[in-house]
Amino acid sequence: MCSQYDGTLVMSNEAGFPPPSHDHSVCAKDALVSAEKSCKHNNVRFTQMRRRVFEIIWENHEPVGAYDILARLNENGGRTAPIAVYRALDFLLEQDLIHRIQSMNAFVGCSEPQLIHKSHFLICSSCKTVAEIPNSSLDHSVSLTAKANGFKIVDSMLEIKGTCQNCQNLEHKHV
Length: 175
Hints:
Blueprint: E1 2-5, E2 8-11, H1 24-41, H2 48-57, H3 66-74, H4 82-94, E3 98-101, E4 106-109, E5 119-124, E6 130-132, H5 136-148, E7 157-162, H6 165-173
Parallel strand pairs: 5-7
Antiparallel strand pairs: 1-2, 3-4, 5-6
Helix pairs in contact: 2-4, 3-4
């Protein structure tokens, strides 16, 4: 999760939701720099379409669907085909730059693409904001449980729905 502390981007091992005063442009800018470096390191092309889809995903911490991305790309009279969006999304997923939120059929930016990790998320049912849980102890617990049951994990994603602290605070103010 990205958060600002004295203007510096902080990546933590704990999930967190951005405060209402959060300047997300810092997260988006740093994510773009990280994506460019990652693509260069992996010797893959970060084309204009891939970049634009990535930027749209990183506009906020809410998951965005493929057709919402397409609508954004075409809002000024563009003629982007759905297949172009899906190809860009497939590339971004393959490069571990974004995650797919299965339950919402939508995508969010990866908060720590430089680290190999499983995808675990807290999803606020009120504001739709998503916080990634980069927690290796959770991964380890899931792996141990699977192993104890003779189960081989192919893919793992945990999505936990509830209400973030910001929305809880708003609810208490209105009571």
